[in-house]
Design a protein that fits this description.
7-stranded mixed beta sheet; alpha/beta; ATP-binding; 6-stranded mixed beta sheet; binds adenosine-5'-diphosphate; 492 residues; Nucleotidyltransferase, domain 5; glycerol kinase; ATPase_NBD
């Protein structure tokens, strides 16, 4: 029986799965790694720990089902995007911890849209390029060593593939492969979205020597073969995608107008815009969705909301209003509406599409009648309203209507949330049985890259929610949300 393997190297855990060619996951294992926070706003990971966890998870999953390398025909990789590593070519030793995407140290005061035309990104604290530059500027001697070719830069996909294909020792006389895929490269601020190559001018401006950057390949192509010694020996790596792109691909959003929303700690939406890198007028990012070797790239618009499931966590952990995240559904279902309560969770300002750093959280419409059931319902509605804003802004940017939103992430367990979303968005909401779309997307990309399958792996039976809300009622609720948002401004 041939199996496809996939690594999902995420912000908190490293997961490894083995799936058959029908999308049935036969084995999995995962390990958490340490979140290193040397000071306020800084978040780091130990790249060596991540590489060790990757091998442990792979070995453990394979052993659990007595599956050997001979049974595994392809390996896919998906990863936390924008997290930046710099290491020594000779020894494989990182010169500094990985600087994580959430880390704010590279925030700057300049115009955030300065590079948006070429890269599709906002120049804020997220992209990987300025994080590499920070390491070169702050580790003694690093910049000079980078210019002399002694150091290599990579996002986590690059770091793992370099180690998998041999690391400092190489493999049977072959050097380890130093590569990345177009989706990860599109998160660096150094890649031109049209040419899909590193751009000399951007590299100069951001301060990253081009010689230390990996080669950019299509997401579905040959990246290399796992080194002979160790786990997964001889398995070809044939699919690599950043995590949000992997979820989009895993959800089968391969056509223009297909969109997915991931409801996790934050909310991440991607809309497939086909062969055009659609520029945003509404604060969305433009990014590469995926590219199959020999074919033109497919682009996406991306919008994110900072506070999604974390509002539920806040109600549970800080206010003690909920005993568990799942209780939000039980409580909210006990009332027909929020009795006029609106929560705007602008804890750190409002992101897409409003971009208001001066906003702070507010709860409006409280009366003596309000109880925790209304608060729970308002929290779920807040997630839906924020999603609606991103969807509507993307529709305006892309010039297309979104009739169906494919969803995944931990919050989609909440069926009431899904119904509210369909109601408030006035669109179909569909959720596959297997919501591990990120790792399945990586497995799908690898399977297609190895010629084993032709389309993304099936994710089981889909549940669908349709809008049951009358138009005037929706308009009334959205107007009340807009009013509450107005009241959240200027508080920060
Ligand atoms: P991440 O990948 O960002 O860590 P997950 O996809 O695992 O997030 O989702 C976890 C988030 O979903 C948490 O913020 C949690 O509060 C929220 N969550 C989990 N289950 C529910 C539920 N039944 N109803 C509402 N929110 C939930």
């Amino acid at each position: 029986m041939p199996y496809i393997a996939a690594i999902d190297q995420g912000t908190t855990t490293t997961r490894f799965i083995l799936t058959d060619l029908e999308g049935k996951v036969v084995a999995h294992a995962q390990y958490e790694h340490e979140q290193i926070m040397p000071r306020q706003g800084w978040v780091e990971h130990d790249p060596v720990e991540i590489w060790r966890n990757t091998r442990r998870a792979a070995g453990e999953a394979m052993a659990s089902q007595d599956i050997t390398e001979e049974d595994i025909v392809a390996l896919g990789v998906t990863n936390q995007r924008e997290t930046a590593v710099v290491w020594e070519r000779e020894t494989g030793k990182p010169v500094y911890n990985a600087i994580v995407w959430q880390d704010a140290r590279t925030n700057h005061d300049g115009d955030p849209t300065a590079f948006q035309g070429k890269t599709g990104l906002l120049h804020n604290s997220y992209p990987a390029g300025p994080k590499w530059a920070w390491i070169l500027d702050n580790v003694p001697g690093a910049r000079q060593r980078a210019e002399e070719g002694e150091l290599l830069a990579g996002t986590i996909d690059t770091w793992l593939i370099w180690n998998l294909t041999g690391g400092a020792r190489g493999d049977d006389g072959h050097e380890a492969v130093h590569v990345t895929d177009v989706t990860n490269a599109s998160r660096t601020l150094l890649m031109d979205l049209e040419t899909l190559q590193w751009d000399d001018e951007l590299c100069r401006e951001v301060g990253v020597p081009r010689g230390m950057l990996p080669e950019i390949r299509a997401s579905i192509s040959e990246f290399g073969v796992v080194r002979r010694r160790g786990t997964l020996s001889g398995v070809p790596i044939t699919g690599v995608l950043g995590d949000q792109q992997a979820a989009l691909f895993g959800q089968g959003c391969l056509d223009r107008g297909d969109a997915k929303m991931t409801y996790g700690t934050g909310l991440f939406m991607l809309l497939n815009t086909g062969g055009t890198p659609q520029r945003s007028e509404h604060g969305m990012l433009t990014t590469v969705a995926y590219q199959i070797e020999g074919e033109a790239p497919v682009y996406a618009l991306e919008g994110s909301v900072a506070v999604g499931g974390s509002l539920i966590q806040w109600l549970r952990d800080q206010l003690g209003v909920l005993g568990s995240a799942a209780e939000s559904e039980i409580l909210a279902a006990q009332v027909d509406n929020s009795a006029g309560v609106v929560i705007v969770p602008a804890f750190s300002g409002l992101f897409a599409p409003r971009w208001r750093t001066d906003a702070r959280g507010v709860i409006t419409g409280l009366t003596r009648y309000t109880d925790r059931r209304h608060i729970a319902r308002a929290a779920l509605e807040a997630t839906c309203f924020q999603t609606c804003e991103v969807v509507r802004a993307m529709e305006r940017d892309a010039g297309t209507g979104i009739e169906e939103l494919r969803v995944d992430g931990g919050m989609t367990d909440n069926k009431l949330l899904m119904q509210l979303q369909a109601d408030l968005l006035d669109a179909r909401v569909t959720r596959p049985a297997n919501i591990e779309t990120t790792v399945m997307g990586a497995a799908s990309a690898a399977g297609i890259g190895a010629g084993l399958i032709e389309a993304p792996l099936p994710l089981g039976t889909t549940l669908t929610w349709h809008s049951t809300m009358a138009g005037p009622e929706r308009d009334r609720l959205i107007a009340r949300w807009d009013d509450a948002v107005e009241r959240s401004l200027g508080l920060g």
